[in-house]
Amino acid sequence: MRVLITGGAGFIGSHYVRRSLGGDHPEFADAEVVVLDKLTYAGNRENLRPVADDPRLRFVQGDICDAELVGELMRGVDLVVHFAAESHVDRSILGASDFVRTNVLGTDVLLQAALAAEVGKFVHVSTDEVYGSIDEGSWPEGDPLEPNSPYSAAKAGSDLLARAYFRTHGLPVCVTRCSNNYGPYQFPEKMLPLFITNLLDGRQVPLYGDGGNVRDWLHVTDHCRGIELVAGAGRPGEVYNIGGGTELTNRQLTDRLLAELGADESAVRHVEDRKGHDRRYSVDHAKISTELGYRPVVDFGEGLADTIRWYRENRAWWEPLKQAATISR
Ligand SMILES: NC(=O)c1ccc[n+]([C@@H]2O[C@H](COP(=O)([O-])OP(=O)(O)OC[C@H]3O[C@@H](n4cnc5c(N)ncnc54)[C@H](O)[C@@H]3O)[C@@H](O)[C@H]2O)c1
Predict the structure, then answer these.
(1) Rg (Cα) of the chain, in Å, rounded?
(2) pLDDT grade for 328, boundaries at 50, 70 and 90
(3) Which UniProt keyword terms apply here (predicted)?
(4) Inter-residue contact 59 to 43 (CB < 8 Å)
(5) Is 129 a residue of the active site?
(6) What atom in ligand 1 is closest to the CA of residue 151?
(7) Is this model's pTM higher than 0.85 or not?
(8) Topology of 2-181+218-242 in CATH?
């Protein structure tokens, strides 16, 4: 089996690669895994270090918008798992062009190449943010997409393109829409690693607005497990929500982090709310559960403690990233 994984040097993509090559995946025993990643500020070869010497892995530094390169890499591919994206909402508010280019145009380049190469399955990794914001209840997959940030609008564009390639051309595409992920190797501009690393350094954490925004926190392992199920038995043309983590307001999450890291209220700095800040995300994940037997297994308390431990023990990974980061809160 030949697998092309885009964005495999990022947070979730690298987790997927490390898991796939990790041993308990017999279907990857003879696989050739090609990672295509541009290594933007968010991509990091260090994330693949645990599997760097695995002969099944080939790393290609390149852009998903490069049609010639993508065409070459796509030849003979059985499965594409497409993670590559510009992924940080705050950056998309400062400027959306990179988001439109990579998330929309880059996805189109991949879909075209996959069609030409007649790949067996194309899993497009989308996000719950494409639905917009919901005060009560949860979105099933058929709900309309009403994205509010330039990030989620660009993701919605790619999500709908993926669907269109199935409807128009019969390309066997599946789309996954997952809730907020947490875990090791997440770039320290996102809320959870930003807060953990600030607290480890005795610094304050910036809490947006009234802290009442609600997110469903799912461990990255559970997300990757859901993607594996969809890659294996997901029906072409279908969308699968992935969720079922732990719903918390940002204030509640902050309080848990303060308690875990031995800090108090003086460590919280209240900052002006993010523009267009979605109030709540919540996906209904009944479809993937009934059809594919998905269920989240990582307990939030344990997952959070493990994640904090990882950042405590891996300063050499995140300190240089924070020093070089061009965005901060
Ligand atoms: N993080 C979350 O909570 C979450 C939740 C649901 C869905 N998602 C989706 O999962 C995917 C991965 O998210 P993440 O958090 O790992 O993101 P990330 O920012 O950590 O990683 C993105 C990766 O894509 C690469 N990349 C960016 N532009 C590229 C280009 N033009 N060509 C090739 N590679 C490029 C980067 O170098 C990086 O390695 C994204 O599509 C995102 O929308 C993320």
Answers:
(1) 19
(2) low
(3) Lyase, NAD
(4) no
(5) yes
(6) 43
(7) yes
(8) Rossmann fold (3.40.50)
